[in-house]
Amino acid sequence: MSKRQLAMVMDLNKCIGCQTCTVACKTQWTNRNGREYMYWNNVETYPGTGYPKNWMELGGGFDAAGDLQPGIIPNLEADYGVPWDYNYDALQGGASFEPNVEPTWGPNWDEDEGTGLFPQDNYFFYLPRICNHCTNPGCLSACPRDAIFKREQDGVVLVDLDRCQGYRYCIAGCPYKKIYFNPKISKSEKCILCFPRIEQGLPPACAQQCVGRIRFVGFLDDTEGQVHKLVNKYKVALGLRTDYGTQPNVYYVPPTESPAKFDANGKIIEGSTRLPIEELEKLFGTEVHQAIKTLKAEMKKRKETGESELMDILIAYQHSDMFRLDNNYYQQVAKESGRKPLALVDNRYVAGKFTKSGHEMNFFHGGHTGAVGGHH
Ligand code: SF4
Ligand code: SF4
After folding, report:
1. What values do phi and psi take at 173, rounded to 5?
2. Could you state, in chain order, the average pLDDT of each consecutive group of 10 residues for the chain (376 residues)?
3. Contacts of 345 (CB under 8 A, 6+ apart)
4. Pocket around ligand 2: residues whose beta carbon is below 6 Å from it?
5. pTM
6. Measured from the CA of 61, which atom of ligand 1 is nearest?
């Protein structure tokens, strides 16, 4: 376990499936050099096959006794799909607009399909996924080379590429299949939670670009922070498939409301709901009942009284309400390890347990940085 844990909360009630997060991540980290097929951030339609195909059934993680479970390494072509491109140049010469490979599978092959019968009881919702930067990572346990490590300062899980030999045990060991094999360099690669951005005061690209403003980023032990409040105070943000035993640190506010079903005559079935609670239980455990109860109670309270801290947090009026990156802390860690602290690119999201105000930031910068949270 690391000294502190940086975590992300995603509010599934607000995700519109626009894939802006996916593109933000792809353009930042995985658009070339053997990473073309990788999606460190993907947004899948649930229920659906997911990415890679049927990832929930591929093993890995730990059993109740804490033993690592065997897992399957997905096939690059069949389970992830071969990325294709279009012949943009040939278009100018009048050629047809065709993919350069015959597409047979890819992420979101079944986007927006969901399940059920239209219009009676069909439903789906979006499930954005990144590496969970687990407290007990299956990838790390599975690696015989000790090439995967969890950063002491913030719990970010990283691959040491100098040590990695490309054995791929980590891929089998991760029950979320969020670590990928780079066939060009024969090494494993994964989401780095945009740590180089975070250390300079910028949220992860997926979170900052998120159109639905569904993503909150902060330290779990920062009791003033939104992440702590959603996870620990109100307990409305829950880990995904915690039964895999890796203690994930990406948390989800479950979908809370869904439309009623229609009968065969197209009439609303009063009191019915399309989204089966058993599905949410499968994803988020039995705590999902209390989480939904709390969310509904706070929504009601907000409607009746105009007051609800929880609803204010989830509405996320401004970016500085969503990200608390505690940059004094990072600067302190850098100094203690003999490194020069990185200059801040943005000072709007620096608040945290060890970063109370803009004034305190001056300690490290020797200049005026302005009041934290004062910019939108
Ligand atoms: S989600 Fe997978 S790759 Fe990420 S830390 Fe957990 S086990 Fe490792
Ligand atoms: S950018 Fe936000 S709203 Fe759009 S798909 Fe990603 S998580 Fe959902």
Report:
1. -75, -25
2. 96 98 98 97 98 98 98 97 86 79 94 95 98 98 98 98 98 98 98 98 98 98 98 98 98 96 94 96 98 98 98 95 97 96 94 76 42 37
3. 197, 200, 201, 202
4. 15-21, 43, 126, 128, 210-212, 214
5. 0.93
6. 7
